[in-house]
């Protein structure tokens, strides 16, 4: 299809992944779903969501109608384009960089700990240059692909509040956030096709929030011979994977620079709270990184 070998002929997902991943020749992005132009793509309005005054406390725009979309080709997939204020984005980005990499949370860097003082340049700091993931709550064991039920730390209260609010807005009021994985991507990095099936409860949705640079996200079906849908995920976008999409193959073959478009920054909005008062380190890091925060319910509720 895209000039790949016959070895990939039955793995349609891999063919598309390699197409969007390629560096020598830029892939054609004209058919990638863009939720900023919903009228131009095969997507549907899923719901109109009305936020409440208390949403401002967790960084979401308050007293506002938000539109979320579904993709008919991927049943159970819901996308809520950026519901965050610029200050809200800064708050959550700061937490993923300043707070979440610290113990008792786990990172990919078993021999390194985050510096005691937050660095002026994350791109020159040994720890942050090598940081790829952090686990929160019930910790996922990347070697065994199962949750380590003997190693559980308290799930961050503020993150739990955010996800419960998003879940309630999107029609999942019983969702209980119990585990999270924060992934850190440089602009030249990828995430290969996989299915998230380690949770004991696969009936509950998975919530994913993106910050920073834009990603091309692929999501297919239960097997790799199903052609995936390609879509842009921009800073602040929320994805819900439920139903058939909860156990669908998905991947990130490409992270794209946003250029001058920085929705976490607003000239008309100050940084009045201490969590984001000194933003220079995060701003430098975001210039060539994407952060994804995904939250799961591990255990089925009786």
TrEMBL record:
GO cellular component: cytoplasm; nucleus
Keyword Oxidoreductase on entry: yes
SUPFAM superfamilies according to UniProt: Clavaminate synthase-like
Domain annotation Fe2OG dioxygenase: ranges: 176-299
Cofactor(s) essential for the protein: Fe(2+)
Matches recorded under InterPro entries: Alkb, AlkB-like, AlkB-like_sf, Oxoglu/Fe-dep_dioxygenase_dom
Cofactor note: Binds 1 Fe(2+) ion per subunit.
One MF term in the entry's GO annotations: broad specificity oxidative DNA demethylase activity
Name listed for the protein in its UniProt record: Fe2OG dioxygenase domain-containing protein
